[in-house]
Amino acid sequence: MQFITGQRYINNADLQLGLGRVVGENHRMVKVAFDAVDEERIYAKDSAPLSRYEPQVDDLLQHKDGWKLTIHEIKNLNGLNIFFGVKENGEEDVIPESEITDNISLDRPADRLLNAQIDKQKWYDLRQNARIHQQRLSRSALYGLTGCRTALLPHQLYIAHSVGKRHAPRVLLADEVGLGKTIEACLILHQQLLTNRAQRAIIIVPESLTHQWMVELLRRFNLQVSVFDEEKCQEIEHSSGFENPFESAQLVLLPLEMILESPVREEQILAAKWDLMVVDEAHHLEWFDGELTEGQTVSDSVMAYQLIESFAKKIPGVLLLTATPEQLGRKSHFARLRLLDADRYHDFDQFIAEEAEFESVADAIDLLIQRVNGDDQVPLNTIHDQLKGHVHQDMLDQIASLNETPENGLALINQLLDQHGTGRVLFRNTRHSVQGFPQRALYDDALESPEIYQSNQQAMASLTPEIHLECDDPLQWLDNDPRVKWLVGKSKQLKHEKILVIASQAQTVLQLEQHYRDQHGIHVAVFHEGMSLIERDQAAAWFADLDNGTHILLCSEIGSEGRNFQFAHHLLFFDLPGHPDLLEQRIGRLDRIGQTETIQIHVPYLKHTAQEKWFKWYHQGLDLFNKTNPAAHHVFTAFQSDLQTTLKPAALDDLIEKSRKLSDELLLSMTRGRDRLLEYNSCRPLEAALLKEQAEAFEQSARLEKFMHKVFDLFNVHYEEHRSGSEIIRPTDEMHGYFPYLLEDGMTITYDREIALANETFHYITWEHPMVTEVLELILTQELGNTAFAVLQNSGLNGGQIFLECRYLIQSTGNSSMQLSRYLPPVNQRFLMAEAGIDVGDKLTENLIRKFKNSVPMNVAVEVLKAKISVIKRLLKKADELMQAQLPALKLEAEQQVKQSISNEIERLQQLASHNGQVRDDEIEYLKNSLELAQTAIGQTQPQLDSIRVLVTM
Ligand SMILES: Nc1ncnc2c1ncn2[C@@H]1O[C@H](COP(=O)(O)OP(=O)(O)OP(=O)(O)O)[C@@H](O)[C@H]1O
């Protein structure tokens, strides 16, 4: 094809783009502007899916300004066509090619049929089937959340469903350790990407978690992420045309450390355009509240905060993840909320004051829940009094009317939750609310403190005495410290179990590993910050290997963050960490979703040393080994200085007593107020359970299997049963061209979630799997299957009649990021034209046709077609007229639907904004803008003839 600027082209694969205009070209590429949807696309010339738009004499042509002319003559000037003709009012006029309207209605199937291009019935059926499925998917609010290799857990579905559908969501995911924040973030990301709400995303994680994130994204969500490090950036800069390496990929994963080390990369990230940023382990971000003086240095966590803050100001969507949101204090917790919405969270004192109000609201919600559950004894005036002064009068009035309309109780609960607390911005599920987690069992061993430490004050006062020893032989402690003997003894005793050993320092880990190897001939895997990422992942994989792996993994503290080791049931603390959050992180490695047994926690400590003090404080003061304690952080802050000093036994008992008391008080007040509200808000159980039901109904795996078998048959992909519930698929020599995601060596697939979860090597095929989404796209954008011919036998109808089945697709053109299909699902309009020129679709239904239809040899079909060409042309014209006649009503209906659904959303957000300010202005603006764009798009919508079938009775 020779492309000339100004020529008009159609994208065969996507007619919805409207008519394109060549705006530039070079020897290899051509750039086409699709003005109807405000998009520019670049194609390789030799493979561009483009067809020149060439109207013929007698065709009706529309000008950009709306008027039309019937073409009488076509002239060509320098490769561009000029159309001469007569307008509807009889005047002569001219339309140069460049001035043809961008919104055209193309009758590709009609052209093909009239040129005797008839497809096989099977392709026609497949196209219709694919259309039905695609429409079902594009309408569902669950699309993007159910097709991943994850169990459908209500608390995760609830969060993902609340957040994934938002424009530019900005939330803090703060589930307790191991409850699935990563999965929730990935679900949200997946939905945003699949529904086009986001196109470019950046994920920033601690270096040690990069690989794990990459694997989770790929294995569970089929998301191919580009992992960036300094080397990769340089490689892209040198070998590709990208000046900014971060513009070379849509989905980027990189370690926080890398950006902290390089201002250049920071600048480049800021310069690249992103829709969404995910930051894992966000408790490392520390807010510095004040002015930095010149020359003042700040910690890495403060730098990290400032870095993420600068990104958060530019990137519209932000997901922050942390299991320990208050690890660096309440202020830092507030500061993370401030990253999400600086307007709403600008005053720390106000934030604290607001939290004080939550208790009354939470109490009222409790009482309402009791009423909703059928307890009529709960007095309404008590609820009323609880809320008086905390909520608006209209809500108080609603409470008063609950006697007459008890079913409104639930709506009222939801309203209260919407309007109070940090609910829209912060989500936190706890083991208490999710339930079903394993038990923990503690085995502690008090060991005699060895001589070498007793002579060293620093060692005695430290949780890691071996680090503080000053002696010539750095390995001497290994022979003297009874914990080493204890560790080796436990390792031998538990030789058939996987055991995770955690020590604070990398140095300790390395020395212990050497000891195991040299003194006992035991090879163990190690995991510490001095290792490269690949080495760490290899170590974790060696430990995870159930058949040939090592049964011991020795980790430094860094190994205890974010990693998945729930296949192990024994956790050995070689030492204790100096902060309760770290202790929770350690236990969280095993206490995660997927843990099937009681977690056995083994803790040795040296008597009369700091270790004993901390052990007792954690155990007796906070009960931390048995369960997570959300108050631990505050108690630690209160008694931090006491914990740092050496305590006499009586003073320790006193400290433990005071800590326990404070912990109990705090827990009580938290469950009274803030946490209870947060818990209700993070997962409204009824809605969550309903979502799970809907998700199960939506996944339709049996239908998918049937559909894919038809696809495989037609595309000549081999499939055979592997074992029950799974099959093997392979390419064949008869395959025509490309089949998406099919591996050359074949692959084992399953459509069953349970089987997919149990067999990680199987590919889990769902309606959201890229193989399926691309196949649907392929079927619907290719022309094959948009024409067909069939005879109707024994239908009871007189023989020799001809019917024309025309299907039109009405879907709005428009900027794809508007995702209009949510508000304006495509309409599929069917007309079955009888020879008399009337639509008999309601009599000759699809079911009847399926029952009586038969195919005929192609040459017979072509003969009949030729003989009946004038009838077909007449019926086509008639169908077009019917379509045009129905269009205004369909558009009006669509407009009303769009208006209603977007206006409802705007209204809800405005209400929320006026009550608790948790809705950002840009969210409301976005919706208002969407409404405007949607209305324009509906106005411009033109029906497209999508397929056409000739039916002849016999
Ligand atoms: N819906 C699910 N289906 C299957 N496995 C899941 C699901 N949710 C979570 N898991 C598994 O449970 C473990 C914990 O999940 P995840 O890593 O998302 O938790 P987290 O809250 O991010 O943990 P941490 O606080 O340690 O960062 C992981 O191994 C994850 O793969």
Features of this protein?
alpha/beta, ATP-binding, 6 domains, P-loop_NTPase, ATP binding, 7-stranded parallel beta sheet, 6-stranded parallel beta sheet, transcription regulation, activator, Rossmann fold
Care to give the gist of this entry?
This protein folds into 6 domains: 8-104, Roll (SH3 type barrels); 149-289 and 298-344, Tandem AAA-ATPase domain (Rossmann fold, 3-Layer(aba) Sandwich), CATH 3.40.50; 351-424, no CATH class; 447-682, P-loop containing nucleotide triphosphate hydrolases (Rossmann fold), CATH 3.40.50; 700-775, Dihydrodipicolinate Reductase, domain 2 (2-Layer Sandwich), CATH 3.30.360; 787-953, no CATH class. It is 45% helix and 17% strand.
Which whole number gives the mean pLDDT?
A: 86
CATH architectural designation of the largest domain:
3-Layer(aba) Sandwich
The proportion of residues in beta strands is: 15-25%
Oligomer type? single chain
The largest beta-sheet arranges its strands as 12-13-11-14-15-10-16
What share of residues is helical? 40-55%
How big is the Rg?
A: 34 Å
Using the alpha-carbon principal axes, give the shape: elongated
Strand count: 31
CATH topology name of the largest domain, in short, is: Rossmann fold
Bound molecules: adenosine-5'-triphosphate
Tally of DSSP helical segments? 35
Question: How does the helix and strand content classify structurally?
Answer: alpha/beta
The profile of the biggest β sheet is: 7 strands, parallel
Q: How many domains comprise the coordinates?
A: 6
User: What is the CATH level 1 assignment of the largest domain?
Assistant: Alpha Beta
By CATH, the superfamily of the largest domain comes out as: P-loop containing nucleotide triphosphate hydrolases
Rounded to the nearest angstrom, the distance between the terminal CA atoms is 45 Å
Low-confidence stretches: none
